Amino acid sequence: MSNEIMVFVEIQGGEIANTSKSAFTVAQALAESKGWNISVLILGSGIDAKAKECSQYSASKTYYYDHQELQNYRSLPFTKVMLQCIKENSPEVIIFGYSTTSTDFAARVSTSAGVGLLTGATEINWDGDNISVIRPIYNDKLNQKFLLKGNPKMIILGPGAFAAVKPDSSKSGEIINCTANFEEGDLIETVVSTETVERSVDLSEAKLIVSGGRGVGSKEKFKVIFDTAEALGGQVASSRAVWDAGWLENDFHVGQTGQTVAPDVYIAAGISGAVQHTAGMKKSKTIIIINTDPDAPIWSVGHFGIVGDLHKVLPLISQKIKE
């Protein structure tokens, strides 16, 4: 047994992706409870510095493949390299953060390696020598529990299910420069161009979010949400109903068809709590509800709350903060 938990690290915009930092959170918890080691697989071109940075996330070994053909994600080259790394190092567990890249090529790797792959994990724990995983189904109305056996156990985390861990500059580990060789058949895809689509609002790293729903009343009345967020040093978000009504841009929208968030504090004001919304925010550490309806579905995910008019409650909160 290698006693090794491997994290696949993605590079986005020249930086380690937040989804990969979430994978480190899970890997550190699993490794600590067993006394195992964390390793990293990182692929790209000109990634020496990022490979070294991986050690700051408690990685004892970082396998990095630096090759011009790995500069952009392509399924065949990435799959070939990961299969090579698995064969040479035999990790017991492989953890992926949630992304379009991981969901595409992890499935190819698991099929080629003849091992299972579980996606959308929201809870991961040891069960003896096996791993117990929880995955929500049916719009989060039910939780399925899986027991993963065999090696390697491959897991893709659910979006927003785990917080991103911070690096520790005092940590160090072995950096292993690996060789990748490709044949013509591995390079049948060509990336013609890559364009960054900027969101006007990125809630992925927000620590405090003040979110408003249809209960706010109108586009003009949404000012109370912005004022409260400013007073608390947070960011504004909304339910899909607000976007549908044209009160805010889509980028503010939290939910299944919007952004998935997990801040320290999520204030839900005037939001009824449809499953489509709660799926995108229920992993928040503390959820505070402000709603005139004591029977609204949103209360099922809340930790604290006030039954009252948000237009009276939120200004009082802002006033107290300013005092």
What does this structure look like?
The structure is a single chain. By secondary structure, the chain is of the alpha/beta class. The protein folds into 2 domains: 184 residues, Rossmann fold; 115 residues, Rossmann fold, CATH 3.40.50.1220. It contains 8 helices and 17 strands. The strands form 4 sheets. It has a 7-stranded parallel beta sheet with strand order 7-11-6-1-4-5-12, with helices on both faces. The chain has a 5-stranded parallel beta sheet with strand order 14-13-15-16-17. Helix 5 runs parallel beside helix 8. It is elongated, with a radius of gyration of 22 Å. The model has no long low-confidence stretch (mean pLDDT 91).
Offer a few descriptive terms.
Rossmann fold, 2 domains, 8 helices, alpha/beta, 26% helix, five-stranded parallel β-sheet, 323 residues, seven-stranded parallel β-sheet, single chain
Layout of helices and strands, plus pairs?
Elements: E1 4-9, E2 11-12, E3 15-16, H1 18-34, E4 37-44, H2 48-53, E5 59-66, H3 75-89, E6 93-96, H4 100-113, E7 117-121, E8 123-127, E9 130-137, E10 142-148, E11 153-157, E12 174-178, E13 208-212, H5 223-232, E14 235-238, H6 240-244, E15 265-269, H7 275-278, E16 286-291, E17 304-307, H8 310-322
SSE succession: EEEHEHEHEHEEEEEEEHEHEHEEH
The share of residues in extended strands comes to 25-35%
Residue-averaged pLDDT: 91
Question: Strands of the largest sheet, in order across it?
Answer: 7-11-6-1-4-5-12
How large is the count of helical segments? 8
Quickly give the structural class: alpha/beta
Largest sheet: 7 strands, parallel
Q: What is the general shape?
A: elongated
Poorly predicted tracts of residues: none
CATH topology of the largest domain: Rossmann fold
CATH architecture of the largest domain: 3-Layer(aba) Sandwich
As for the number of domains, it is 2
Beginning-to-end CA distance, first to last residue: 60 Å
The CATH class of the largest domain turns out to be Alpha Beta
